[in-house]
Automatic annotation (TrEMBL):
<dbReference type="InterPro" id="IPR018120">
    <property type="entry name" value="Glyco_hydro_1_AS"/>
</dbReference>
<dbReference type="InterPro" id="IPR017853">
    <property type="entry name" value="GH"/>
</dbReference>
<dbReference type="GO" id="GO:0008422">
    <property type="term" value="F:beta-glucosidase activity"/>
</dbReference>
<dbReference type="Pfam" id="PF00232">
    <property type="entry name" value="Glyco_hydro_1"/>
</dbReference>
<keyword id="KW-0326">Glycosidase</keyword>
<protein>
    <submittedName>
        <fullName>Glycoside hydrolase family 1 protein</fullName>
    </submittedName>
</protein>
<dbReference type="GO" id="GO:0016052">
    <property type="term" value="P:carbohydrate catabolic process"/>
</dbReference>
<dbReference type="InterPro" id="IPR001360">
    <property type="entry name" value="Glyco_hydro_1"/>
</dbReference>
<feature type="active site" description="Nucleophile">
    <location>
        <position position="375"/>
    </location>
</feature>
<dbReference type="GO" id="GO:0005829">
    <property type="term" value="C:cytosol"/>
</dbReference>
<comment type="similarity">
    <text>Belongs to the glycosyl hydrolase 1 family.</text>
</comment>
<keyword id="KW-0378">Hydrolase</keyword>
Amino acid sequence: MSNQPLFPKDFLWGGAVAACQVEGAYNKDGKGLSTADVIAHGMMNDPTDPIDPNTFYPYHEAIDFYHRYKDDIKLFKEMGFKAFRTSIAWSRIFPHGDDARPNEAGLKFYDDLFDELIKHDIEPVITITHFETPLSLAHKYGGWADRRLIEYYTRFVRTIFERYKGKVKYWMTFNEINIILHIPFTGGALTVKKGEAGYEQALYSAMHHQFVASATAVKLGHEIMGKDAMIGCMIAFGPTYPETSNPLDALKMQEHMRNTTTFSDVQVRGAYPEHYLRELEKKGIKLPIEAGDLEVIKAHTVDFIGFSYYSSHTVSHKGGGEEQSNFFKNTVKNPYLSPVDESAKEWSWPVDPIGLRYSLHYLQDRYNKPLFIVENGLGAKDVIAEDGKIHDDYRITYLKRHLQEVAIAIDEGVNLLGYTSWGPIDLVSAGTSQMSKRYGYIYVDRDDHGNGTLKRTPKESFYWYQAVIKSNGAHL
Ligand code: BG6
């Protein structure tokens, strides 16, 4: 696309992964078990704990990034990456979460990883924790429902900020913090099960504790790394549309949207919205607010808004409808959106590139803070053709259409720091623990059962993204 407006000069093009979905080496160099380590194949949020020797746990080896990161970073560099988003496996640093001292081998691994990125002029963008918590914190305390998790998280945060200051500028406190209410074991190490007494209360207690922890991290970040450190939130974002112009649908849309904006409001505006407090009160939920909590949340709002975007949601006041998404239930079909490509049908979600432009404007209008698209992409089945290549034109089409909308939004005035597409190298899916749901520009030879050589092969999209970055988005 030749007439595209150019992206900003220092735009952070790159890709994003999470430690548990790529690293493997789950029990190496002093690492403790994490909640991800007890997720068996296809069992999101539902642990098989203790580890059963006859069960396959895809995260244990993942794509062995732990041992192969140098070669993988070379490939990222070849694509022209300016940024790489990953997370720190908390249980590499504090194996049980509440240990008094950090594990030096774990700290050293991230030192080496960040040095390698910096050596290649790739900016590390670090999620402090992404869908994994030291398992021991689940066993001992029931996860984030317990207030003591704030203290242990803060200890972890202080340790990594002190260690990596000068190497890492961009941080995000919790991956998709709004997902805690939907996948509480994965999002917050919660052990109480749906249907058990106190389940709902535990969810909201965990949410509040994470908000306090997140604001405390922003505070510490600026104290330790100075005012230039950029500490952001990370929200799973997708706009909600009303099914019709019926005002009742508009109200339903507003209500649905608030599932997400409450989480960004607390972290960006620094306070719980009044409607949310009233809603919780009506539900009989009591937020475990202690002295000083609301002040910390108010005083330490985030520096930027990181968000993932995969699709939009459409709702009707009539409720129900076809379920389109795991995370946000009760949505209806949107006749204006096309389904994903055949290769991605198994995990189908409606394709809505304009929804990304809408999201950028929506977030900028609401918060007026720098934005960062830290996830976007297409999980699809890739086939190795007879010529040995992977012709993933469906992925190129998907990404291209989204980036074209991003370019328009930038041209219309949106302040966007960067774009890190999800899974630049194939990785273990968080939703299904599959390898066959592939997002990468780089193919990894490994199947859903752990077979394969782990060999890396660039796909057609690799060269497409390389050209996009080289032209700073002019050649989309
Ligand atoms: C996001 C998560 O929700 O979506 C990632 O932050 C996840 O961890 C990504 O992998 C894609 O979802 P999935 O289920 O296809 O892996």
